[in-house]
Specification:
This protein is of the alpha/beta class. Helix content is about 35%, strand content about 15%. The longest helix is centred in the N-terminal third of the chain and has 17 residues.
Length: about 220
């Protein structure tokens, strides 16, 4: 509120002339402060704060030595990440040396993050049954305007079936963290939720080191 204070006399000066009354203004800032706090409270209550973005990574529970060994891995792809952004892989169980029970030893193959002929095409082919089911689910969602919670439950149901691929990620000491993130991003795009990140074994490390030594 502005307050006007009158000052001066208004009496006669020299020569009988009237002097103009002196006026001074004093601005009361109290209402402005109240308004500022009201606006601040309004924006705090209505603002949407950014949520922390996190990446879900599944780590398997440690094996119990007193329990029987786990069953053989079926419909799985294991990616071995190493230096120079190179990525090798093998399918199903790892067989370092051929035996009577496993007559064919594992041979590493190399792939890339390229849009064509890389990780994406490999996983789509390996996960063809689940990919087709996920594609139909996406069409149903667009047609029926499916709720997000229902949509996520159905995705998990498809990915939990035995026909869905299981991805195992292993990186040696020379792989970059960025490579792991890129691979997990590919899995998220393809809606593959069955994946784990575990330590590389000594036979796998030796094999990938030998393979990486060749260009």
């Amino acid at each position: 509120m502005a307050e006007i204070a009158e000052g001066g006399g208004g009496g006669h000066g020299k020569g009988g002339k009237k002097r103009a009354k002196k006026q001074s203004t004093k601005v009361d800032m109290t209402p402005m402060v109240d308004l500022a706090f009201l606006l601040l409270t309004f924006f705090v209550l209505t603002a949407t704060f950014n949520k922390n973005k996190a990446m879900d990574i599944t780590f398997p529970a440690p094996l119990d030595p007193n329990q029987p060994p786990p069953p053989a891995v079926k419909n799985a792809v294991t990616f071995l990440l190493t230096k120079d952004h190179r990525i090798f892989y093998y399918e199903e169980e790892f067989v370092p040396v051929a035996t009577a029970m496993n007559p064919v030893a594992t041979v590493l193959k190399e792939t890339t993050y390229a849009p064509e002929g890389g990780v994406e095409d490999l996983l789509m082919a390996k996960n063809s049954v689940a990919s087709e089911a996920l594609k139909k689910l996406e069409e149903e969602r667009k047609a029926d305007k499916m709720e997000d919670s229902t949509y996520k439950k159905k995705i998990n149901s498809i990915n939990n079936k035995q026909t869905a691929v299981t991805v195992i990620i292993k990186a040696d000491g020379e792989a970059k963290y960025r490579d792991v993130v890129l691979l997990i991003d590919e899995l998220k795009v393809l809606k593959i939720s069955k994946f784990v990140n575990v330590d590389i074994t000594k036979p796998e490390y030796d094999m990938v080191t030998t393979a990486a030594a060749t260009k």
